[in-house]
Write a structure and sequence with these properties.
globular, Rossmann fold, 2 domains, 6-stranded mixed sheet, alpha/beta
């Protein structure tokens, strides 16, 4: 097995007397897709904020490609290869779809602060933006103002902007939240295609369990700030503690399921 791209040890965040995240350990291999799930209040957002640098851990260590990034500010962590999307769209609504990607690409390349003017004259940046939009299936919208495209397309645009920074690790925070069923299917298929390409490593939080089971190689289940279980999607489905805490099943329901399996095998 190769060296993990991300290693998290004893990650903890306390707010006064409350512990939001308590002693989480996790390793992520290159080109792996890890999903983080748990009920509301499980600590997922706090966990994400620490990995991306928006919060400093109270304890623990975060290592990216062997380099300690614990407590670094978000812009430095981004420079080292961690890019994050948010539940709320983080785009420039007055710009076109392509201009949004060009501006992020120009910033990543270290160009001057006159990002839009520079990007609009930079043919390589334009071509790179076009290629990303085509890869995400929204190149037909490249000349549309970002504010007028559909919600689902805005989420895809934000993913394109994340990928414009050439990330080693992509953090997707609720990528299908608020989408229609068709938009959810489309976005899930796209993320699956990106993951299968071998070009990206994903760390995803998501409430839709169908999306989680479709995308994840492994799943970390959090409950009340702690690691409840970690394993493959099939292992997570079968774990009784997960089914009680997250999937909402009680012991009677699990016994009924077991009886059905036994009857089917009789």
């Amino acid at each position: 097995m190769s060296q993990p791209i991300l290693t998290i040890e004893n990650l903890t965040k306390r707010f006064g007397g409350n512990t939001a995240v308590n002693g989480i350990d996790l390793s992520v291999q290159p080109r792996e897709t890890i999903a983080i799930i748990g009920p509301n209040g499980a600590g997922k957002t706090t966990f994400y904020n620490m990995v991306s640098g928006r919060m400093k851990p109270s304890d623990g260590r975060i290592t990216l490609d062997g380099r300690d990034i614990t407590g670094l500010p978000p812009h430095k962590i981004s420079r080292l290869g961690v890019s994050r999307s948010f539940q709320i769209n983080n785009i420039f609504p007055e710009m076109t779809v392509q201009e949004n990607v060009e501006v992020v690409r120009s910033a990543f390349l270290g160009h001057s602060r006159r990002l839009f003017n520079l990007a609009s004259r930079n043919r390589p940046v334009q071509e790179q933006a076009e290629a990303l939009l085509e890869r995400l299936g929204i190149d037909s919208l490249k000349h549309h103002r970002a504010e007028v495209i559909s919600y689902g397309d805005k989420r895809l645009l934000e993913i394109a902007m994340v990928l414009a920074t050439e990330p080693k690790l992509v953090l997707l925070d609720e990528p299908t939240a608020g989408m229609t069923p068709e938009e959810t299917r489309r976005t899930t298929a796209l993320i699956r295609k990106l993951a299968d390409s071998g070009d990206y490593t994903f760390l995803i939080t998501e409430h839709d369990m169908d999306v989680v089971f479709n995308l994840a190689d492994r799943i970390l289940v959090m409950h009340r700030g702690e690691r409840l279980f970690a394993g493959t999607p099939e292992e997570v489905k079968q774990d009784p503690d997960v089914r009680r805490a997250y999937l909402g099943e009680d012991d009677d329901e699990q016994d009924q399921d077991q009886d059905k399996h036994q009857e089917a095998g009789a």
